[in-house]
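ASSEMBLY PREDICTION REQUEST
Request ID: AP-0331
Submitted by: J.K., bench scientist
Number of chains: two
Total residues: 901
Priority: normal
Notes: Please return the full assembly, not individual chains.
Input sequences:
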Amino acid sequence: MIKKNYDLVVIGGGSAGMAGAIEARKLGIQDILIIEKNDYLGGILNQCVHNGFGLTEFKEELTGPEFMTRLSDQVKELKIDYVLNTTVTSLLPDKTIYASNQEGFYIIKAKSVLVTTGCYERNAGAIMLPGDRPSGVVTAGTAQLYLNIYGYLVGKRVFILGSGDIGLIMARRLTLEGAKVLGVAELCPYSNGLNRNIVQCLEDFHIPLYLSHTVSDVDGYDGILHGITISQVDEHNQIIPGTEKKYECDTLLLSVGLIPNSPLLRDAGVKLSRNKGAIVNERYETSIPGVFSAGNVLHVHDLVDLVTKESRLVAHFIKEYLDGKESAQDKYLDVIASDGVGYVLPHKVSLNNTHDVTFKFRVRKPIKDLNVIFLDKDSEIKKIFKPVLIPSEMTEITLTSEELKKFKNNITVKVEKKI
Amino acid sequence: MNNKFDIIVIGAGVIGCNIARELSQYKLNVLVIEKDNDVCARASMANSAIVHSGYDPVPGTFKARFNVEGNRMFYDLCKRLDVECYQIGSLTIAMDDEQMKVLKDLEKRAAENKVPVKILDHDELLKEEPNVNPKAVGALLAPTAGIVDPFTFCAHNIENALDNGVKLHLNEEVKEIKDLKDHFEIKTNLGIYQSTIVINAAGHGSYKLGSQLEKLDYQITPRKGEYFVFDHYAKGLVNHTIFPLPSAKGKGILVTPTYSANYLIGPSSELSESEDHSTDPATLAMVKAGALEMVPSLPFNELIRVFAGVRATPSDHDFHIAPLKTHPKFIHLCGIESPGFVSSPAIAKYVVNELVSPLIKLEKKENYITHVRPKIETRKMSAEEKIKLIKEHPEYGEIICQCEKISKGEILDAMSRSDHPHTIKAIKKRCRAGFGKCQGGFCQPLVAKLISEYYHIPLTSVQYSKIGSNVVRYPTKGAKHD
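STATUS: Completed
Returned structure:
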């Protein structure tokens, strides 16, 4: 039964949504509804049957389904309302939510909203994959769903483009299912997956990783994949002629990045960043007061443990918002990702913020012996040494409220080699 | 099985589908044979989907005649067949004074073709289209041009034909045609048919089939066009179809909104030897540069798909629509490149009224069905309408494609129609499931499951598009499937 009014509606019942709802309930928020599109809670974790989850959240190593069951058990214990098989079709700027399922179409008024709709996979069109567009060219996550939820393999001779974690995990999983994984091509001169996955999923199974390579042709005459060609690229990502290698295969998995699944926010009028996640302040509040965002719809995380941590933090801000401690009229300092930094979260910090703020960012390229520098426009406020940072691992640095008071113009974050 | 027909139509592209619909109003025994496993599977699927106004084909040609006639028929026909079609007008842009002179010539050509046009100066153009390159000096406005849903247009043409008794064989390729004087014998990969009249609308395959019976005095060259598709967030980017000046290579790289509020950018124009649908980065870079010249602010970060279509370009640059000289009951359609799509209803009418009618008695059916069942599209409905609909039909409440907000009810409705789409691509073409930013990443498995359940076939038999393009091929170790 879906009611007409809630204190908090959580859109998306994956790890971020459940962790946020659990924390919100623990903080005393009463009327909470989680809306989930699938017929199960837990989102993408259900298809992540490998282990490696929960090392920080639960202090033990769990599989995806185990991790998500820990969360869904708590949702049930805490008697948090949730609906499955239900899609939010619109979020309006006044926090009215339209939702649809087989029982009906619902108009829900929420005092606050937490959007945790996860991310989607960048696909062949978005990367302008050259050649034909046959079946058998599949994003790694879709192939993973077919494999682990439906029980089917897309094919048995597989090449993988992109060294994102899902692709690496699938290389191992497919090999164990009897498929031949011919190789993984990565455009960058470094891998974009976690190091443990390179070792455990590729090296342990003797699957070659071709760095600075990309797929330069797809042979899919008449809609069926017959093979692919990979080529080496130069430092400008341009194909080097003469370096072609051909592979006969029936499957090309794409593991070429994840994008925040944010159209609901966008349609509501929420301002988005270049990464397509919402622009949020230090309270993870979007440009619409009372609408919050966390997890992969905000920015794509490396580990689910970081997702749940973020979402639990956001629950505290939602509680404060509902208690009337909002600061919608605040003036803000913009947070700017400068030299060597891909993005930084939060995107802005309120001038009357009195808390410590943890900044989350990724470097553009792997870098060793560096300083992370926080500047107020041009003047350096804080400098932290790091032995090494890589793009596939998010970095967190906390600035105290005292340190934050020193910023007057903006908060600029950059990295530079230590001289 | 009865293998004798009054008329066999070869090919279920936009031309074949329109001819089938046009024939279906008469008491005739008609079969449509299509080699792919869906209608609208080649050039009819992959094109600009523009209802061209008809101002630019050379006056007196078939192209000019059928384009203009087709344009006049198109909007009413789309209304009747419940196809999305919008008369948004086109703007052909002049970038300098030299090009402006050419526009003046085109204005004269438009008058000869009896197509209304108007020349806009720089200020008028920028008022209509604020995102067009401010260096543009003017444009030719053709208000009767429009955009159409090409997939539903074909699907609803064939559906109307099937509802009126026409038969459709998919997955069947015509191999050999013999003229046995009182009838034709048509051999396919699956059987042999007899037909009094043959209408060859086989698109790229048409030339080869026609050549079996008669030497043709022109050539057909495949000409590939590569395109970009943007997501539908850059609202108001352009309001008309924006063309550069036409050239020998065709109408040039256009920028247009689509019926689905996406944006389409392209095509390139590359002659090739075979019907090759691949895309390549160098060509797309050229298309991008051409499009940016007209609309500098095109948001390429909204790119969701690239594709290529192949037109059948005739060496003499006009449509061929006539019976073969030595085989008067073999009506041969060949080289129907752009503006073939908009021309299709007029071509069909011409073929039936002018070419078929002298050959066979055309007697109207009493119980002819003029309309197709309208689509129910939840994304276009108000909250109140959806509350009512879902109460009566719960399947419209379950959203399958999150990006385009397509419900299970819409997909089930598509499969229940007389053309019974049964591939992922066929569903995508009719319902738009998989049309959005994730390109089916989330909904493809759900659609595959619906197809498998509806047609009672195992998931391993569900095809993506062409025969053999199974979405999954093998069960996992130890998996138990029904």
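REVIEWER COMMENTS: Chain B has three domains: 1-84+149-219+315-374, 85-148+220-312, 378-461.
SIGN-OFF: pending second reviewer
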